[in-house]
Structure formats: structure tokens, C-alpha cells
Predict the structure of Ubiquinone biosynthesis protein.
Amino acid sequence: MHRSFVLRTLLSRNSRRCFSWSAPQVQLLRAALPHVPAYGWTQDAVAAAVASNARLSVAATGLVQAPYDLIAFCMDDWNDQLRQILLERVNNHADEWSQLSLADRLQFAFSTRLKLQQEFLQANRWHEAMAVGARPEYVVTTSEKLQTMVETVCSLCHEDDNTASLNALEQFSLGAIYVAAELHLVSNNDTMTRFEDDETWNFLRQQLIHWDRLRNTTVTALPESTATVAYVSSTLVSSLTSGLASLMFPSGMPRK
């Protein structure tokens, strides 16, 4: 199948899958996000957006339900930004991209995705978002958004169109590496140096190199199926993120 057709199909499929927001919701969500560092993932952030923007109606606040709408929109938006960045690399820098190893491409993709979260990580707000995303009522949606990101990265970073796509076990393990790197950033108490030092990026790179070695030496793999991918993605999010929530909020995450 021709590369350009594959990329257009991927972009169209994942866009439909991620974005289910109406235009008024998008306008309000984009206006509310700059207020999250001050107010958290709360309805207060939405109210602050309306109060500071004459084009937004007070009645519009009912279109967004904090906290999860704010968090879910962030994940969708970041996934779409990452997809566009990777497509630009594949289409406009094909020669350079083809010279990179699979581990190098994955390093670029995952570090790019993590850096999109910089504002909320440095404001000490993203650990709250991760804890909310682990709640039972949200964990399935959170896992789907993580799965979408991993599928996009795997599709656009895979080294050869003529080889089999990465299977469920390989995608699951990459998702685990990404979340581990995310937790690494969240656990760094020095908010000013989270993105300046090399500790997290070295950790991410070493994990990806190890993953690539195991991938090339492993004989057995999980069968490829949508159900398997969905199951392992859900397990990944619920186990890792719930563990983070229990550590940071031992008495229970306050509900807004």
C-alpha cells in the first residue's frame, strides 16, 4: 500500500477517533486551559475563562464538565499535535527520517509528546490530571487516548513499510515505557529543571534501546487483535496511574 495513502488513512481514522468536541466546546476548552495552572482542573478555570473573554457566554460553562473534559481535551490535542509533527517529519524530511534507527524515532516521538505537557508539569498540575484519569469512570477513555497515541507513534515510526507492523505486545511495552517516562517527569521535585536536565531523556532512551533489543530476540508474541490491544492498554493505565494516585492522594482524590 502506498505510503501517502497509509498516512492519510491514519490521520483521518485517528482524528475521528479522538475529536468528538463541538466548536463551542473547543473554544471554551482552549480558553480555559491557560487558567488551569492557577485554578487546577476545575470548573473555576472554566469560569475564569468566561469572565476574561467577552465572546464567551456564561451559559457556555455548562458545555464543559471539569475536571475530565479539560484533561481529555488536552490529551486529544497533544495527540493531534504529535501526529502532525510526525507526519511533517515523514513527508518533508524523509531522507533524514529514514537514516534514524527505530529507537531514535521513538525517542523523538515520545520526548516530543512529553514536552507538550510542559506547562502543566511545571505548574505541578499534571499529576492531578493523571490521578483523575485513573478513576474508574474515566480509565477506559484514558486508556483509549493512550492507545491512540501509541498506535500513531508505532505507525509513523516503524522502520520499514514492508515489514509487519508492531504487534500488541510490542505496542503495550512501548506504552509502558512512555508512562514510566511520564511518571519520571512527574516525580521530579525540581519543577524548573524537569526539561533542562538529561535524566528523564536518558532514562527514556535506555528503555527504548532495551525494548528494541528484546524485540529483535523475542520469538513469541501476543496475537494481534483489537481486543488484546484494548485490554493491555487499559491494564497499563489502571495499574500505573492508580498506583500514582494512591501514593499522592492516600485519603482519596478530592472531587471537584
User: Anything to note?
Assistant: The chain has 13 helices and no strands. The longest helix spans residues 68-92. Residues 1-18, 241-256 have pLDDT under 50 and may be disordered. The radius of gyration is 19 Å.
